[in-house]
Design goal:
By secondary structure, the chain is an all-alpha fold. The chain has helices at 14-25, 28-41, 56-66, 77-85, 88-93, 102-116, 119-134, 141-158, 178-185; strands at residues 50-51, 96-97. It has nine helices and two strands.
C-alpha cells in the first residue's frame, strides 16, 4: 500500500474505491484484483510538496479561479486529472497545505459537492470514504492524507467553470408514507 500512495487518483480513484470495497467484503480474490488494477493503473500526478502559503480552503478557491475558463482535451475523468496535473497553473498550486487535516478535507469535499452537484466531486466523496477505510494500512497516515489531498485537488481543478456556477438548490420533498407515494404514482 505505501508504494501506491502517490497514485490515489489512479483511474479517477476507482482503484482505491475497488480495493476498499474488496477489503470491506473480505474477498481475497477481489483484493488481489483490486491491487493488481491499481498497480497497473499507477500514475504519479506530481511529486508531493508542502506549503504554508495557503490553507486547504484557499487552495481550492485559487484552483477554482485558475481553472475557471479551462477546457480539457481528455474525454474521461482519469485523463483530465492527469492533464490538469501537468498544467502550469496546477503545478503552482499543487503543494499541499502543511496543516491539512482529515476533518478539513471531509468538510471541503462535501461542501464543494453540495455547492455544485458535480459528478467529479461526487467521486471525491466516494474516494474520501474509500481513503478513510484504507487509512489504517498506511504507516504514515498524515503523508497518506497529503497524497490524497493532492490527488483530490487535481480532480477538483478538472471541474473548471462549474466551480463558479453554484447549482440551483431544490426544495426538499415532504416525507410521504408508502400509501401516499403509491397514490401519487397512479
Amino acid at each position: 500500500m505505501p508504494r501506491l500512495i502517490a497514485s490515489f487518483n489512479a483511474q479517477a480513484f476507482q482503484c482505491m474505491i475497488r480495493l476498499s470495497c474488496a477489503i470491506k467484503s473480505q474477498q481475497q480474490r477481489e483484493i488481489a484484483y483490486a491491487l493488481a488494477y491499481w498497480v497497473q493503473s499507477y500514475q504519479l500526478i506530481t511529486p508531493l510538496s508542502l506549503t504554508e502559503k495557503y490553507n486547504a480552503e484557499q487552495q481550492l478557491k485559487q484552483l477554482a479561479y485558475a481553472f475557471s475558463n479551462s477546457s480539457f482535451q481528455a474525454n474521461n475523468m482519469s485523463q483530465r486529472i492527469f492533464e490538469v496535473a501537468q498544467h502550469p497553473n496546477y503545478l503552482k498550486l499543487a503543494p499541499v497545505p502543511v496543516d491539512i487535516t482529515i476533518e478539513k478535507v471531509l468538510q471541503l469535499v462535501v461542501e464543494y459537492y453540495r455547492k455544485t452537484n458535480n459528478s467529479t466531486l461526487l467521486h471525491g466523496i466516494t474516494a474520501l470514504h474509500a481513503f478513510i477505510e484504507l487509512l489504517q494500512y498506511f504507516p504514515d497516515q498524515q503523508t497518506a492524507l497529503q497524497w490524497f489531498w493532492q490527488s483530490y485537488t487535481a480532480a477538483f481543478a478538472t471541474v473548471g467553470k462549474n466551480l463558479q456556477q453554484p447549482r440551483d438548490v431544490l426544495p426538499t420533498s415532504p416525507h410521504l408514507s408508502w400509501l401516499e407515494t403509491i397514490t401519487r404514482l397512479r
